[in-house]
Amino acid sequence: MKLKFLFVLLILIIFSCSPSSQFTNLYVDDAYKGMQFKKVLVVGMAKEDWKKKVYENEFRSQLIKHNVEVLTAWQELPKGETISKETFYKYFSDKNIDAVFVVMAAGSKTETTMTGGGSANVYAGFYGFYVSSASYYYSPVTTSEESVVYMQTNIYETTDGTLIWSVKSQSFEPQNTGDVIKTVSYNVVSKLASDGYFK
């Protein structure tokens, strides 16, 4: 019993340390539903090289759990080369890649929430109204701030370069880039798996 309690407590701690993340703006091209990803290229888009590697490596680690063969741009492209139609055909046309995952930061913002203050609506006569609402009405207004980080994941098929799947993810109160992309990559790959894009 004690061991079970400790296990549950550990799970709660892990989840409380992970940033909360959810999807917005999901796009799916119905013409490509049922497509199976067996081999993909993951491309991270960021100014800093280390962020590109983090994006690509986290998606790779999630995809290989579903027996998908994964190439990462930072390992495959020569230094200084960026992904484009020309470089894709130059370096990847003979590698039988089904899809290209493009992962990028899509902005961030700070949301401010105000609580407290205001008035109550209690119909108990003046004295009853005053007693029940005074503490609420005269309580100070407090504000809290929450940071939100957005990530965009686009998936393109490799015959015509058509966008076949896309989602924006928003993560709340992330600690760092690694936390964000770890959560986003897990959620995106899990969604793709549940929708049948992997065997």
Description of the structure:
37% of the residues lie in helices and 32% in strands. It contains 6 helices and 6 strands. It has a 6-stranded mixed beta sheet with strand order 1-6-5-4-2-3. The chain is globular and about 45 Å long.
Short descriptors:
alpha/beta, disordered N terminus, single chain, 6 helices, 6-stranded mixed beta sheet, 199 residues
Topology:
Layout: H1 2-17, E1 20-28, E2 39-45, H2 49-63, E3 69-72, H3 73-76, H4 85-92, E4 99-115, H5 125-137, E5 142-157, E6 163-172, H6 177-194
Parallel strand pairs: 2-3, 2-4
Antiparallel strand pairs: 1-6, 4-5, 5-6
* Tally of helical runs: 6
N-to-C SSE string, H for helix and E for strand: HEEHEHHEHEEH
Terminus-to-terminus distance: 38 Å
Structural class: alpha/beta
Our Rg estimate from Cα atoms comes to: 24 Å
In spatial order, strands of the major sheet run: 1-6-5-4-2-3
Secondary structure: helix percent: 25-40%
Count of DSSP strands: 6
For the biggest sheet, the summary is: 6 strands, mixed
Averaged pLDDT, please? 75
Range of strand content:
25-35%
The 3D shape can be described as: globular
